[in-house]
Amino acid sequence: MGLQLFVANIAMAGPAAEIVDRLKNATPDSYAVIERELENAWSRSGSASADLLLQRGRNAMEAGEFKVAIGHLTALVDHAPEFAEGWNARATAYFNLEMYGPALDDIRQALVLNPNHYKAMSGFGIILERSGNLQAALDAFRKAASIHPNREDIATAIERLEREVGGQQA
User: Fold this and answer.
1) Nearest 5 degrees, angle CA 106-CA 110-CA 112?
2) For every residue of the chain, which 3-state class applies, written as one string?
3) Contact 67/97 with Cβ under 8 angstroms?
4) CB atoms near residue 78 (< 10 Å)
5) Rounded distance, CA 10 to CA 2, Å?
């Protein structure tokens, strides 16, 4: 499936749907609390061992140890392949090592499992933009904005890409 078609086919549903609805309707003054609540919900797998692997992976990333993080997060996705946050976190580690192919693969899996993951969708847009696929990147950022309309970084990316692609609609 082409990247642009993949972005277009992501359905808006998934875990923590009620919180996502609140996020979509939040004001610029109220979204931060809802955003944290949603990210906390996404970080709970229901398995203590999976949650520990996620935390170890995140701690390694915070320390700049991305290869170590990938080890923990690979164990996590092997242990809990249905846990979207594991895939998203590993994609972030791959991205930080400029391993964009594996990062894209993990982002795709995260979005299959959690189509409302605006951070994964935004990461998808960043990689697409870096690879020169500007229209697909714009589509990804627009999809992310439909989930989280108050993220300034997403709005800035959309404005930049609209200028670059001449304001063309997908």
Assistant:
1) 115
2) CCHHHHHHHCCCCCCCHHHHHHHHCCCCCCHHHHHHHHHHHHCCCCCHHHHHHHHHHHHHHHCCCHHHHHHHHHHHHHHCCCCHHHHHHHHHHHHHCCCHHHHHHHHHHHHHHCCCCHHHHHHHHHHHHHCCCHHHHHHHHHHHHHHCCCCHHHHHHHHHHHHHCCCCCC
3) yes
4) 10
5) 13
Using CA atoms of 87, 91, 92, 96 in order, give the dihedral in degrees to the nearest 10. 150
pLDDT per position in the chain (170 positions), as tens? 454 444 444 444 455 788 999 999 888 888 999 999 999 999 999 999 999 999 999 999 999 999 999 999 999 999 999 999 999 999 999 999 999 999 999 999 999 999 999 999 999 999 999 999 999 999 999 999 999 999 999 999 999 999 999 855 54
Among 20, 22, 32, 94, residue whose Cα is nearest residue 57: 94
Whether this prediction's pTM lies above 0.70 is answered by yes
CB 142 within 8 A of CB 107: no
Q: How far apart are CA 159 and CA 114, in angstroms?
A: 26
Amino acid letter, residue 137: A
